[in-house]
Specification:
The protein is of the alpha+beta class. The protein has eleven helices and eleven strands.
């Protein structure tokens, strides 16, 4: 090490050379300076707390286990309309309201919903009727539309957040696909793995060797599309920045391979949807760093 680089290291405040433990959780470097030792776990916890404190993004929670049956009953188009409503869920009340500060928010009318969905007002009633019949939308005594907290909510969670998935509003609104294509993304919410953000059959499995990722044939079945139609939809979701597709060695479903012993699995953009309370791996974040 040159004299210049050594001086730079000293000025940085980092230890010089090896650390020698001196007891009480402290150690000294080759210059005799004292440093407090910290375990890797403690460093990670500090990093996580710092991330959570900095993260001011607005999001909605979805209860994954409750969603499975309900999502399967919705048409893809109406599932997409449901996802489009997330940014309008009012904090704590779950009433659908206009954007802005809470004191300025007003409940959405059918005319407002038509603008949100990008459709003619006369079609809104039919959409809301189906969402109400499925149970994801309810109506208050005052006649306001409200998202059923059994499935989705905004507010402080009083339960294990490991069982929840977050959808960030700002990035969600930047996904430019049609409602039916967006509905496929909605229907994947219950299948997102905590650590990897990959779509899988058993999203609560902690053992990496036991996680069974869903290939395109299995995803097509869950969202009610042909494999060809799903592939077209996935390409549009990739182009919009919502997901990435990854090819890997074919798993336990031989007929699902792409003909060359490989299969395609889906990675959800964690800047849009995630279960983690902290950042994902650097590699995952880099994949989506210029999505929007």
């Amino acid at each position: 090490m040159t004299h210049k680089s050594r001086m730079q290291q000293i000025r940085s405040g980092e230890p010089v050379g090896n650390l020698t433990p001196i007891g009480n959780g402290h150690a000294k470097d080759e210059l005799g300076r004292i440093f407090k030792l910290q375990s890797f776990e403690a460093q990670e916890e500090k990093r996580r707390r710092g991330y959570m404190k900095r993260d001011k993004r607005i999001f909605s929670f979805s209860r994954m286990q409750e969603m499975v049956d309900t999502a399967s009953k919705l048409s893809n188009k109406h599932a997409g309309y449901m996802l489009m409503l997330f940014p309008y869920i009012q904090y704590r009340t779950n009433i659908l309201v206009s954007p802005g500060r809470k004191e300025n928010q007003i409940p959405l009318t059918d005319k407002d919903l038509a603008e949100v969905f990008g459709i003619n007002k006369r079609y809104v009633s039919g959409i809301i009727t189906e969402l109400k019949e499925i149970g994801v939308i309810t109506e208050t005594r005052e006649g306001y539309y409200k998202v059923n907290e059994r499935y989705h909510f905004r507010g402080r969670s009083r339960e294990d957040t490991y069982m929840l998935v977050k959808t960030f509003h700002t990035t969600l609104k930047k996904i430019k696909v049609n409602p039916a294509e967006l509905g496929v993304l909605y229907k994947l919410l219950p299948y997102i793995h905590y650590e990897s953000n990959l779509v899988c059959e058993n999203p609560f499995e902690d053992d990496p060797k036991k996680v069974r990722f869903l290939n395109t044939s299995e995803i097509a079945e869950k969202v009610g599309l042909s494999r060809q139609k799903l592939n077209d939809t996935l390409r549009k979701l990739v182009s919009s920045g919502a997901i990435a597709t990854i090819q890997r060695k074919s798993g336990i479903v031989p007929q699902a391979s792409d003909g060359d012993g490989r299969e395609t699995v889906v990675l959800i953009n964690p800047y849009v949807i995630t279960r983690k309370r902290e950042d994902h791996s650097v590699i995952t974040l880099q994949l989506f760093s210029d999505s929007f």
